[in-house]
TrEMBL record:
UniProtKB keywords: Membrane, Transmembrane, Transmembrane helix
UniProt name for this protein: Peptidase M50 domain-containing protein
Sequence intervals crossing the membrane: 6-26, 89-112, 124-142
Domain of life: Bacteria
Amino acid sequence: MMGFEAIEIVLIVIFWIVVLPLTTLLHEIGHGIGGILISKERAMVFLGPIEPSNTKTFHIGRMDFHIKWAYFGFCSIKNYHKLNAMQRIAISAGGPAMSLLIVFAFIFLLFFDFPYQLKNFVTAIAIVNAWQFLCTAVPIIYPTWYKAYSGMSSDGYQIVKAWKEYRQERKVRL
């Protein structure tokens, strides 16, 4: 039988190799769900870079998955530029909403009786998803040290930008 230290090491390895990339993938799936629910377009969900070597791995309905193990990801909606402001808001909000949903789901799990190693694991998953929610929901342009996202706008920034466009569109119509 494994000792407590061995279990903790296994959980740490699983966290770094599986949970962190999966957290990013689920966040991007949130964007994809937003995209396919509010439009007739296809969503391309990437774990890893958007480059020719990251080819389509599989698809589910109108969602194409391009999976290459990484800690970063993207979601691209076909004809995104043709969508109206409210559709772009729904797509941008989908990722942070998914992250927040995961936070609440894992906080709920903490009410159950688990060994402390599993409680720590569940807590870590909730924390990393809360961090991802905050890092994506706050409207900023990512700094250079944010590597894969350097110079890109956060989901929150895209929501604010689309909301301003929506308000302008409403003023023109009235």
